[in-house]
Amino acid sequence: MRGNRERDNAWAGVASRLVSQSSVAHRGRFPVPCSLFPVPFFSPSPLTLLVSSRMRLSAVVLLALAACTTAPSTTAPAFGAAERAATVDSVQAMLDAWRGAVGTMDVERIASFYATDSAFRWIEDGATRYLSAQQIGDAIRETKGSMQSMELTLVEPQITPLAPGVAVVSTGFTQKFTDTAGVTGGFAGVITMTVVRADSGWRFLVGHTSAIAPRPAPGPRPTSR
Predict the structure, then answer these.
(1) Cα-atom radius of gyration of the chain, to the nearest Å?
(2) What pairs with residue 177 in β-bridges?
(3) Per-residue buried b or exposed e for 30-59, using 16+ beta carbons within 10 Å of the residue's own CB
(4) Burial (CB count <10 Å: 0-12, 13-18, 19+), residue 91
(5) C-beta separation of 133 from 167 below 8 A
(6) What does the alpha-carbon distance between residue 22 and residue 16 come to, in Å, rounded to a whole number?
(7) CB atoms within 10 A of CB 95
(8) CA nearest 191: which of 214, 215, 175?
(9) Where are the chain's structural domains?
């Protein structure tokens, strides 16, 4: 009996030191909710204390490892110098095709360059003028019958790639037209546009046209009295 008590006392001492060391070693490093390790309602034996303490240490280590594990990173699409240069070239080709469509006054082809997206907006001189590609097509149809020719020139367009499939275009422009009576007119200004790549190619998503206001005609010179 005495040998058993001495052995139990030894086990209890070892278990007590392990629990104490576990509490000190992990205090302030890895907060563990106490509810994960409820206090038993029975009086454990020294052997139970030792096993429970070792299980507790294992659980703390596993929780620490789980906390340090990071989720696998997702690789963003490549968008380096080569991709940016390709974006500039393809957007420029789209702008050239758009100018060509305007020159032939092909209504359906012109309208196809504008995105069929609910986010589409085209702003002119402080007012939102068009909310869809269809509205732009309808506006061109209304004026086509009175036009003999139309010419659109883009002046030094600047194409800035923002991300794969998205770019911004800023350009000066002049637009000349001749009506069926032979009267020539036109206007000029600046256009800024956000273009996005769709399945059928680059399309205008948002555009803003700012035209140069014509200078007022000079009035009569004041006369001296």
Answers:
(1) 38
(2) 150, 185
(3) eeeeeeeeeeeeeeeebeebbebbeebbee
(4) buried
(5) no
(6) 10
(7) 20
(8) 175
(9) 7-68, 81-211
Of 215, 210, 198, the closest CA to residue 129 belongs to 210
Reading the block at residue 209, the tokens are 């046209």
**Which among 3-7, 18-22, 153-157 has the top mean pLDDT?**
153-157
Place of tokens 């007012």: 127
Between the alpha carbon of residue 223 and those of residues 99, 197, 216, 219, 220, the distances in Å are: 49, 62, 20, 12, 9
Crossing angle for the helix pair 2-26 and 46-68, to the nearest 10 degrees = 20
Best CA proximity match to 143, nearest among 177, 189, 120: 177
Tens-digit pLDDT profile for residues 186-221: 989 999 999 999 988 999 999 999 998 766 666 666
For domain 81-211, say whether CATH 3.40.50.300 is its number: no
> Model pTM?
0.62
